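As a warm-up, study this chain.
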Amino acid sequence: MEDIVENPVIRVRNLVTRFGPQVVHEGVNLDVRRGEVLGLVGGSGMGKSVLLKEIVGLIEPTGGTIEVLGRDTGRQGRAGLQERWGVLFQDGALFSSMTVAENIMVPLREHTTLPDDIIREIARVKVAMVGLPANAAAKYPSQLSGGMRKRAGLARALALDPEILFLDEPTAGLDPIGAAAFDELIGNLQRSLGLTVFMVTHDLDSLYAICDRIAVLIDRRLLVGTIDDLLQADHPWIRDYFHGPRGRAAASSRS
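Now compare it with the structure written out below.
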């Protein structure tokens, strides 16, 4: 089911993660191809978001190696990589005291020397790019709906025109119509911008709608394949997940 990818955008080898006596990952291996949408799924508490945070350098793994865009992401190799990826966390992680436009300007001011008028224009473009109305730029996160906050967080994640987009439960908390619209937005952006997307999710509809491959975190390791591959997998959790009522509903809606 898994294969070795030549020059992967993300390369994880023999990853081990422990928090005290708790072992979260044990020998995790993963290759993410350039330009694909990879969905990461697994049971609650299995370490999906932990793996994302390890890849972007927010958590140090206990052992193993992580390479992004050909560079080891250890402490000394991470500099400069943050400008080449964008991250949307589950709650949007917007600064509550800043407007949407000001939030989008933060990475631009931190990582570029562009003049302020250009930065403001880029923020305006990113607001439009994610489907927000122009007047949303001047609003504070507390004035936005949950779906609009996610789009604002996405606009900030795209501020530096990244090559890789990391998404942590992007449709969590959205109603089915809002979730489907967000999936469509991610798919359109991925195709138009040539993004590689690494998405932690529990949303079966998202997997069927936009993911090229799926990585399942089970038994502290990853099983990676297409949906068709995983539908044939002989593992109790995978069977329950993909062949249960919600899995059948998601599959039928895409057929």
